[in-house]
UniProtKB/TrEMBL annotation:
Name of this protein: T6SS Phospholipase effector Tle1-like catalytic domain-containing protein
Classification lineage: Bacteria, Pseudomonadati, Pseudomonadota, Betaproteobacteria, Burkholderiales
Pfam families from the UniProt entry: T6SS_Tle1-like_cat
InterPro entries found in the cross-reference section: Tle1-like_cat (IPR018712)
Residue stretches making up the T6SS Phospholipase effector Tle1-like catalytic domain: 3-304
Amino acid sequence: MPKNIVFCADGTWNGPNSKDDDNDGIPDTTNVWKAFCTLAGDAKLDSVLLASEQELEQTGPEAQVAKYLHGVGDSRNVAIKLLGGVFGNGIIARIVRGYTYVSRNYEPGDAIILIGFSRGAYTVRALGGMIADVGLLNPQKFDLSDKEHAYMLGINAWRRHREARVKARQNAGGLLGIFSALMRHLPQFAFDTSEPDDTVPVDSIKAIGVWDTVGSLGIPLYLGANGSDVDVFRFADTALSNKVAFGVHALSLDEQRSDFTPTFWDARDGITQALFAGAHADVGGGYPTDESGLSDIACTWMLERLGDPAIGLHVKPQPWAFKPDFFGMGHEPWTQPPFNLLPKGPRTPIPFPKDVGAHISIAHRMGIDPKTGQRVAVTLKYLPTALAEQLGTNMVWMD
């Protein structure tokens, strides 16, 4: 019987073992962890590693397996050890961890659903592109329960995938040289000769759901003036593969850090992109419970979209106790170190693609009746400059 395979990649900061600033007994976690906690399925106790990675499984008519990964997961991770000190080993490891998990569980007809925020948003978008390009590891040829060998195969597949993407880019001469220099630090097995039957093609990925993908890696890396080391890992393009049926993207409207420029998907059928009030983590989560009213809006919206019968994510009857609040606290991280020393400014000059809509919660926060466009009484003064031009036209609100 077909099942869902769900891979949840969290960001750089808050995971399930995060701090608890409001002392309510609930860690200040992101929407990725909250979403994972809502998924139907029982915890696989042997998968709980230092709260940085966990797995769920549900059998029956709504069969589903799911994995949550915070950062690179368990500090004893074999993939990191295999990669050694190669630049970007954490980036590669996150993608390969997801790749081997999906490969290990996939059977023809299964629905692959990838979820992420921040660095995790890059992870799942890159993972989706990798699966679409090269397929998954062949379980008929390899014993994928041997995780160390599976990681070696996954790193090899990633290297081939990225090399092909870099070569396909226009004016890739200099970039290819940088890529080749970095790849020389990969272990030898990454360059082993591969056979056509090492991987099996995957016809479709059901959905990719992400909160606020920014920069070329999902979140900026500050590595020096030219940033050339990062460039070889960036998205080859912003077009979601046609093998991905649905893309769901929640975006920050109010983020002002220049390096947090949103990375949109190109418009096409099956893609939904919506703006939400607040900064980066006001959309993707990570603040204390009593400061998460805005991010809970974006989280419940995402779960509703992914739970649509067309996608079919299975959730528990009584999921996380969300408290969405139109008038919730909006944070300004650009006023705090180290971001207060870096370039900033409203997302005013960002040309939002015409398919990107504003979530209806923004209208309520602004005190606008979304049906009539007329102002109503509201105590919170909120007028996002990034929507100034659109507000003068026929604004379309999304729910």
